[in-house]
Structures are given as structure tokens and as C-alpha cells.
Amino acid sequence: MAGNSIGQLYRVTTFGESHGTALGCIIDGIPPGIPLNKAIIQHDLDRRRPGFSNFTTQRKESDQIKILSGVFEDITTGTPIGLIVENTDYRSQDYSDIKDLFRPGHADYTYEKKYGIRDYRGGGRSSARETVMRVAAGAIAKKYLNLKYGILIRGYISQIGNINCQFTNWSVVDSNPFFCPDPNKLELLDKLIRSLKKDGDSIGAKVTVIAENVPLGLGEPVFDKLDADLAHALMSINAVKGIEIGDGFEVVNQLGSQHRDEMGINGFKSNHSGGVLGGISSGQIITLKLAMKPTSSIIKPGKTINKDGKEVQITITGRHDPCVGIRAVPVAEAMTAIVLMDHLLRYQAQCPDINIIKK
Amino acid sequence: MAGNSIGQLYRVTTFGESHGTALGCIIDGIPPGIPLNKAIIQHDLDRRRPGFSNFTTQRKESDQIKILSGVFEDITTGTPIGLIVENTDYRSQDYSDIKDLFRPGHADYTYEKKYGIRDYRGGGRSSARETVMRVAAGAIAKKYLNLKYGILIRGYISQIGNINCQFTNWSVVDSNPFFCPDPNKLELLDKLIRSLKKDGDSIGAKVTVIAENVPLGLGEPVFDKLDADLAHALMSINAVKGIEIGDGFEVVNQLGSQHRDEMGINGFKSNHSGGVLGGISSGQIITLKLAMKPTSSIIKPGKTINKDGKEVQITITGRHDPCVGIRAVPVAEAMTAIVLMDHLLRYQAQCPDINIIKK
Amino acid sequence: MAGNSIGQLYRVTTFGESHGTALGCIIDGIPPGIPLNKAIIQHDLDRRRPGFSNFTTQRKESDQIKILSGVFEDITTGTPIGLIVENTDYRSQDYSDIKDLFRPGHADYTYEKKYGIRDYRGGGRSSARETVMRVAAGAIAKKYLNLKYGILIRGYISQIGNINCQFTNWSVVDSNPFFCPDPNKLELLDKLIRSLKKDGDSIGAKVTVIAENVPLGLGEPVFDKLDADLAHALMSINAVKGIEIGDGFEVVNQLGSQHRDEMGINGFKSNHSGGVLGGISSGQIITLKLAMKPTSSIIKPGKTINKDGKEVQITITGRHDPCVGIRAVPVAEAMTAIVLMDHLLRYQAQCPDINIIKK
Amino acid sequence: MAGNSIGQLYRVTTFGESHGTALGCIIDGIPPGIPLNKAIIQHDLDRRRPGFSNFTTQRKESDQIKILSGVFEDITTGTPIGLIVENTDYRSQDYSDIKDLFRPGHADYTYEKKYGIRDYRGGGRSSARETVMRVAAGAIAKKYLNLKYGILIRGYISQIGNINCQFTNWSVVDSNPFFCPDPNKLELLDKLIRSLKKDGDSIGAKVTVIAENVPLGLGEPVFDKLDADLAHALMSINAVKGIEIGDGFEVVNQLGSQHRDEMGINGFKSNHSGGVLGGISSGQIITLKLAMKPTSSIIKPGKTINKDGKEVQITITGRHDPCVGIRAVPVAEAMTAIVLMDHLLRYQAQCPDINIIKK
């Protein structure tokens, strides 16, 4: 398998299986002279950590980040940053019983058929655990973007099942285990998740990501449009089935006279575009939405086949999220940060003499 | 501007402005020994051509493709294929009046601010005309995929405004200028488009792309998942604001027990996933949906600013589609073909000894 | 065949066969706002042109460059530059007789065996004619580097056969068809080349390239060292068999105390390194040497095999250089310029806040 | 600093400073199903290890490799391989005295000026210690190439100072600490190195690499020629100043009738080309030569400047090789293996239906 890198100038390459010795990544392209320490990364890792709440998987991982290179006396040197998180709490026996089965909705079948071999322990490389290093690399990008331009990249849960969550303010998002911005929906969500746990079932979710203070000029027209690279990065997160920027699918029923964002002396009069015009950031707020499928690992029995092609019933025990979408929030923020960081460096390469980007 | 290439092993690099001398591309990575001639490419170019119907822009371009290299005696040699289409019908004067204005919903503003200069004639590089070479490169990929595995990649209009078009069969799609699969909606669409033309307004659309006979095994886990690369390629098409694979945003309100595709002795019992599991094609039909924003170039007056920052009224004359989504159908097919072709070559690089892919 | 691109941020992709319709390239990554016109490119094309002197191949090509995109009112817009040169004087019949033979020292055999097909007309893609687009892309890079930093990249012939040419000054180099810097060797070279033509044989050469005013800071440690990327670019030129930077192979017999360049208040006291330390330009003059093999296409008969594997005698008529090294001079300059240009943009991406590079 | 990756399909990305916590790399693109364990990698690491002989640096590193991912039950799964070697024996105090000086012949000056900061401990990222991970990644490539095609990649010292070493057989190379193939020169080399140690000086060397059983067809014409990619990979090794393939610089004084390798019914009659024609492997033995500069870290005093630009005398104590070229032998083998591995996968991507490569 290749394809374990993302970004051209801020290039993140990851490795690691769910139940291997460790997960790790190399970040190549970080500029020199940036303040960086473990705490900056650990903060975001803790937000996605299993067991962060009793609504997410109960796997107990401390997920302690180690910085192995690229930082000298708490400053980046410009050399590649090697990061590692050791797997401390894996119980292989949990999975031995499904060793020869293909879990429905999982990558077991495609991995086995493509590679002729798979590490069946906890999904190996296809486990959501793989996102640990995305969050670590994203945390460094977030730090740089914020230091240099005051860019803020934050996400929240905008829907779970049929429960819509209206955005109120960010402190609400940080105050509950659902990353829910709507205080009036917390009890409903609590009920829903508990009943799903009881039923051994799971539910989908919608995640919204907001990027503020993004300077005008990020993104390359044609194939590497900013929104195209964001779609790539976000769709690469496990369980994502749909991506929207700005008005997204609502545009299907909009008129040109409604949709196009008019301009005035104070700038744009609306933001249907979601902050990107012709693939380039317009200086407006960037708004993204992700559709997250329900967790496939559920206790409720289902039909599948084994390696011999025989039909069998399967019920997946072990520790799993009733709503994988919840923990996707910090991951979606991280992927957004990685893409913006990459395009910021690309901008600097090609338009160093134009100062729009310097606010 | 960089970012004018797509694909790693089937690599397409394009150039050309709407009103420049010519549009062109280089395709690097085409295998040797493939039958190829102009007619194969011209067929798809004609499907997207302006003036193909009286419902799309009236610009009259013959769009004659020229093959400059890489083909010897109608067989590919494995050397890069150089393609070119000359611009014959451009009227720069059409655009002189908006030379100093930023058309709302267009890239004028972001290009001007990012690059400090822009070719204002017809949007230059940001014009939908740029998609000509996407279609040409896609036609070659389609040909190869079909020859080698019988892969079929076809698209249609599934919605325009609030008019839903149900799929019936492909011959209907080919028989009308809307690429509409639903014979009962043709009259409604005709009425809608005519009234929009009268009003000088435009409308959004939803495009569906279906890829059949895609072998199991295409796509690389983690960042270069097949669905992630498809999302990138499709979101890079002008005017696309949303992407769905399989059930897309419907998953938000689905239970895990509903969504996960169970398996039996005859294979999968459903296809909610849209033909991709863990980023790898599962052998099922691949289903994609695109949200297309309404054309921003409309006669209806709107507010914008000029280069001096003064607010002015703008009305865009010239020849434009009331629904840019219609002509996006062959472009979406082409981008899907380019991504599948690229991953087919990537598969061959890494799993040459495993024969799943050989049906 | 892939591998038709070079550079990461100043990315040049070429196409075209010796006897195809045209040769062309796309340059992706040129910054906006740079003055550019045909004359700038044509000047270098004329220096490498066949028939430039009666000591190089007699093929008569005017090699007129056409700029198809990326330049608006003689200024680069930042969009990709499409370039093309039409093949006007090709005589396929010249080559029909060797259609089924593998010319010794040529790529005929490896192309045929690797791809199962080849365009045998004049070597197709493996012809030295492929270097036309290298020179065109290099001319643009040279222009930019000179405008921005006063960088000068110039080459000369330092040896042909056993005739050593001492550098005197650049005006001598420009005043003779050998790019020879040594006025005392012109007559000897003239004699040598004439006798080789009489014998139907050819000779090797050594080319030296000098880059002046290169700012400190270009090149990335480890794999993409400046000297490593230069070695790649120069070794990719047809007929090159060896590359040296600075003292090159002389270092084998040097002591550390001799080789290492000491520093003083006025900078470096010597330049054994050739202007690169640890893969990064040091601000000193960059010196490179190339070993060019003798032309393989000679009239003198030789032994080879045909497609049936039968041993046959071959004698290659047609129009060929007795010393292919001569015309390699402008090509070597161009490749050096492309690499420096690429690393200049890479520098700007990663160290935009450090001003060493601004002299 | 970017540029810490090499290879397109067999992609190696490294991190780590001389005196950091650890050195590591990620190998992306290894095919699944290959037997792999620590011992295979450790064997080559031991060959380059400091303290391997009393003629190389006395630093005592056990250099124990750890495989963190990508291998399951001693078989590669196709997922990325994470490797790590911890730094156990680093003595930072050794270097504190040169903290503010720029060691002549080193990257201290260029790093400091480019990045504005450097890890001065033992050269940080620019230390020869960086090559540990090259050797590890090369060992895996060697294993695969040998398993699949019986390819053998081996190197030796062909010259140190003015002492020429004639090749006799590989068992001699393995039997002495100089990787010298010539039993008659061992005593001379021993004397030379001892006297250099006494003088506190160092000497250059020439390394030869031989690749046998390389199938025809590896390498991509034009920019990614096999020899161009080899030149890049080998020139990227610290201290390399020159590269030759086949006859190298001898071609300058050769006639075409001498150089071109004629063919007969039994194949090529000679191998002046060094096994590559038109950038593609010809099926002959591949021969490469490297010029290695003398170690710059010597006890003998030299002149340099400090951070304030003042001229000072410097004498470098600590543990250093009198001839860095010796330990470059396994590194050069490794880089050759990485390039051949990469092109083997690229071949499989583009010419899967042609069986020349299967001997």
C-alpha cells in the first residue's frame, strides 16, 4: 500500500496498525524557527482520545506523543519532525474470533482480496486508530497558522441521526463530550447514544468545520483547487461519505442571482461560496460539512461470509463508538489545517513578492 | 499557478486560457500498445461542446483535437501524448467592458488579488473552457479501462432545480441535450431552461456518475483512498460544491445495522457504500453524486466592485449556459476515468503477483 | 513511459518524437509578473539548433517557438506556459532501412524490448531532438534567475578527445561553433572534427557549466541536495556518462586538510566544494563538469542484430554530429537553470522570513 | 527542510539528527507477501556501523533496528513499514566547543544561514549518521530484488588516495575492514590510514558498485532515466563529489567506433555503457563509480570564522573516520537498491503485459 502521505510542501507521512508496536509519522516541510513542544500536540490528541467520554470507545490509551527529531530547544529547526505514539492497551484476543470473517462495512474483505494478507487485529491499518497521527500533524499546522495569521480552525457536530444541533458558541462545543454547539440538544443526544448502546447499534453524524482568518490567495486553480484538496483530505478520513463546501447540495435548487456572492465597498455581501472562489481562498470564512456513516462494528448480529465463502452470522463485541462521527471532529479540524498549511507554503513559493497574504 | 497536473501514474497536465491561442495537455504514463486515434477523443469532446444544444452556451467552437505525439500508426508507444485544441471562435471585445470589474461568483477577484495580474478575456484559465482537456484525457482513460476490463463510466443529470430525474436507461440519457435519464421530465426541463433564459438567470443541478465493472482492488488506504481521490478530482471541476459517494449525506440519519452492506454466498446484499470499502474498490458498482452551482455569468444585474473598490452594477452579456451542470456530465465522467486509470496502474505496480484484478 | 517531468515547483513536462508533428512542453509554477516573449526563448534555441555550424548535424530545422498560454501582454500570469515547436524538416525515408535493426549504442534495443513497439523514425523519443524543450524551459528559468538575482549560468567545452581547452573569457566561447573558450585550440578542433567526418567516426567531450551569483540557501539536505538534483538533471541529458561537482574525482587523492574550504573574514579562501556544502548553495560559484560519450550514429560500419536476432552489419547514414558534446552545452546550461529555479521556489516556500537569499 | 523522501513507488522518507532521540524512516510502497524480519536489516546496518573496525569512527552505537509496522508474522502486509534506531551513545559535550564556529567543509555555515538555527550537536541532520536509515531501507529493497530476480548489488573500495585496488573476488571484499577487493593492497591501506590518524588528517576514496542480474526494462526515458535517478541517489550521499556510469569520464577521449557496444547473436560484445541504454537497463551488468571527498572533521588545525564573523583557528577532536569513503560502501549499495526497486515497481505499473522483465 502506498498513499500514506498527504501534502506537497507540508508533507505528512504516517505508519502504524491498530495493534502494532506504535503509530508514527514524519512531517517534512515545517519551516524553521517555530516554537513547538509536546503539550501543543498532546492537547489535540487528548480531544480525540478513546475513553475521552463514556460515549466513545472504552479502549484506554494514554496516547502519549514523543517528538523524536526536528525540534531543538523547543524550536523547529526545519528538519523533518518524527513523531511516535506507542500502543499500550491492545488486546489481540478480542479479535481472534473474527480472524477468518469479513466484518460487514469494514475493509477486511477488500484488504484481504487486494493484498492477499491482512493484520486482522483491530482492523490493522484500516482502524480509526490511524487518525492519531493526522491529529498530531494537524496540531502543528494549527499552531503555525495561528501564530502567523491568527487562523482559527474549529469543528463541531451539526447533526446526529435526526437531531439537528444549532451553533451557539465555541465554549458550548468544548463543554460536552459530543462537540455539540447546541445546549438544548445535549439531553436528547445523551438519550440517543445510551439507547444505541443498549441496542448494540450505531448512528451517523454530520460534522461542520469552520476556518476563520484565512488570508486571500490560498489554493491553486484547476486540479489543486483549495476546495478540491480539502475534499480529498476530508474524504480520506474513515467513514466519511459526503463533503460540502459553502451551500453544498443546496445549490442544486438555487438561482444564479441567489447564489453568487455580490460585492460592495465593505467586501462580500454574503458567503454562499464557503470562502473559496475559483479554487482560491477569498478571505471569507471557510465552511465545510462532512457526512459520517454509522460505526460498522456493532453488537447487533449481521450476515457475512468467512474466508471459505460460507455465509455466517457475526456479532462484533469489543469496544466501539456508537457514533464514530463524534471523534471525527478533531480529525476533520486536523485535515483542514494540514491542507491550509500546505497551500500557505505553496503560496509563498510562487507569489512571494505579492503581499495580499500579509494582512 | 501550479497544480495543473492530476494523477500519479496516469498523469495529466493541462494548459490554456479561454481566449488564448490553444488549450492543450500532456498525458504521461499511458501504457504502450493501446489502439488510439482522434475519433475516440473527438466523440467525448463533441458531447461537451458549446453549442451542442440550444440549451448550452452558443459559443461556436469546433474543438478539433490534434494528437501531437505518443501514438505511432494508431498505437500508443508508451511515450507521452501531447494533445491540442485551437481556440477559433473567441471575441475578446465581448469581455472588454468587464475588464476592470470583478464578476460576482467568479474567480476574477481572487486571481487578481493573488497573482496581481489576470487574463480577463472570458475568465482566462478559470473558464469552464479549461475542461476541454479533462474530457480529452478522460476519453483515453475510458478507452483503456473498457478495453482491459470492460469498465463503463457514464453520467447523467439527476436533478435540476427542484426537478428530480429518475434513472430509466442509458439510451434515454443519450437522446436529449440535458443528459436526462427520465423521459417524463424533458418537457419540464425545457420549460425551466427557456424561462431562465428569458429572465437572464441560471440554476443549479445534481450530476450522478456510475462506474460499472470496476475490479476489486483499486485505491490505496489512508490518504489516497479511491473515494478521496475521486472527491478531489470531481471537486476540482468548476462550480462543484458538494460530493457524495454511495448514500452520501443520507448516512447521517442511518443506523449501523441499516448501512453496513452484509455479505452472502452471492456477494454483497446491498450497496450503501457506493462500491468502496476502506478506500479500496469492492467490485460493486461505484456511485457518485455532484452538486453543481448555478452559472454565475447571468444577464440579471448584480452588485460588485471595480478595481478601484467602487461599488458598481454589473450585467453579464455574452454566451452562457443557464445550467452549467448539464455540460459537467461528460467532464465528471472524464475525471472519474482519470482517477480509476491512475489507480489501476498503481495497483499493477504494487500487487502484480495477485490476480484478483484479473477477472 | 512516464518520467517526462522534472522539478517540483518549477515543473517542466515535455512531449514529442524526433519525427512527430511537434515537440512541446508545459511549464507549471512560473511566478506571475515576469516579462516574457518569444525572443528570450528563441535565442537559446538558436544556440542549440542543428545546422548552427558545419560541425553539427546538417538537419535544417528553423525551430520556431510558439507560446500558447501563460503569457498575457508579454507578462507571465502565473498560469502554465504551453510551448510548441513544429517539426518541419524530417525525412522518414532516411530511417526506413534501419527499421528492423538495433543501432549499437542507441536506445532502439531497450525501447523495443521494454515497450514492445517503437517509433523508429530518428530514434523517436530517444532522439537528441528531445532536448529542444529542455532548452526552451531553461531559457525562461535563466531569465527569471537573472532578473531577480543577477544569476548567470554559462557553459563551455573544456575537452574534446585529448584536446584540452583552457578557459579565457566568455566572448571567446560565443565566437566559435565549438563553444570553446580557448582561442589556441580552435584550429586543432577544426582539424579533428574534419578528420572524424572523413572517417565517419565521432568523439567524446567534456562540458563545464558555471553558475555565478547563486545566493546562499538553495538546496534541501538529505535526498534533494542541490548537487544531487543537478546530477540527476545533467545525467538525464542524452549521452552523459559522468558528472562532477567542484573538484570531482580529484578528491580521491586529496587530503582533508587540502580539500576543505577554509573561511576568513572575507568568506571562503578556496572553492574545492564547487559552491555546495551539505547540499545547500554556499554563495560561491557553482562548477559542474559533464562527460559526453561520442555520437553512436556513425557511418563507420558496425555489428548488430536485427529483430530476428540475426547478426548483421550496420552503417548509419543521415545527418549526425561528429561530437554530440558540442550541442550539449546549451542543454547543460538549461538543465542547471531549471534545477536552480526549482530550488529557488522551494526556498521561498520554506524560509520566506529569512532574508539571506535577498543579497 | 523538505526533500527527505526518495523514490516514487518505493518511497523512503527519513528523519533524525546525529544526537537526537532516534533516527527513523517510513517505507511506503513495499509489496505485500514478502518475508521480512529484523535480521535482514541488521546485517547491513552492522556493515556500516561505527566501530565496525579500528579504521572507522570509534563511536559505539549498537544500532539495533526496530520494525514498528508493516510486517505481520514476518511477512510484509503492504502497509507502510516504520523503522527506528535509537541513539544510545551520544556525547553532546564533545561538540559544545564548536557550537559557535562553522567547521570548514561542513554544512554548519549553510544550515545556520539558511535556517537561522541549527542543531550543532554532531552536525545534527547533516551528520553521516543520517545514512543509517538509507542502509535499512536499502536492505529491504535488496532482499526483494534478490528474491524476485536474483539481483545482486555489491560495492567495494576501488581506490584510496593513490592506492588502486583491483577487483579479485567478493570474498576478499568481505574479509577486510576496507571493503577492499585487492589482497595485495591491504597492508598499504593499513599503513596509510594509521599515518593519517597520526597526522590528524584524512583522505578521499573511490567506491565502485556493481548490480548483477538486473532485468532489461528498468528506467524511464527522458528525465527519469535509470542512470539519472542513480546519479541523484548516489550524489545525495554525504561527501560524494562525482558519479560515473560505465566508462564515465574515459568517454571524453573515446571514438564512437570504440565506445558503442556492438551486438551479436550472444548479445552485447562489450559493456562500455555500464548496463544502461537510453536510460533503460539493457540486461547487462550495471557499473557505477563514486568519488568520495576526504573527511572534513580532522584534528589538524584549520582557519574558519565564528558566528560574529571573526576569524579563528579550529581543531576538531571527537571520533571521526580518516576515510569516510570506506563506510560509504554499504550506503552506496543501499541507494542503488532503492532506485532499482523503485523502477521495478514503475515498470510493473506501465508494462504489466510485457514479459521481457520475467527472465
From TrEMBL, chains A, B, C, D:
Gene3D superfamilies: Chorismate synthase AroC. One of its GO terms (cellular component) is cytosol. Pfam families: Chorismate_synt. Its cofactor is FMNH2. NADP(+) binds at residue 48. Its EC number is 4.2.3.5. InterPro entries: Chorismate_synth, Chorismate_synth_AroC_sf, Chorismate_synthase_CS. Pathway: Metabolic intermediate biosynthesis; chorismate biosynthesis; chorismate from D-erythrose 4-phosphate and phosphoenolpyruvate: step 7/7. One of its GO terms (molecular function) is chorismate synthase activity. GO terms for biological process: amino acid biosynthetic process; aromatic amino acid family biosynthetic process; chorismate biosynthetic process. It catalyses: 5-O-(1-carboxyvinyl)-3-phosphoshikimate = chorismate + phosphate. FMN binds at residues 125-127, 238-239, 278, 293-297, 319. It is an enzyme of class 4 (lyase). Reduced FMN (FMNH(2)). Keywords: Amino-acid biosynthesis, Aromatic amino acid biosynthesis, FAD, Flavoprotein, FMN, Lyase, NADP. HAMAP family: Chorismate_synth. Belongs to the chorismate synthase family. NCBIfam families: aroC (TIGR00033), PRK05382.1 (NF003793). This reaction introduces a second double bond into the aromatic ring system. Homotetramer. This is Chorismate synthase. It comes from Candidatus Pantoea edessiphila.
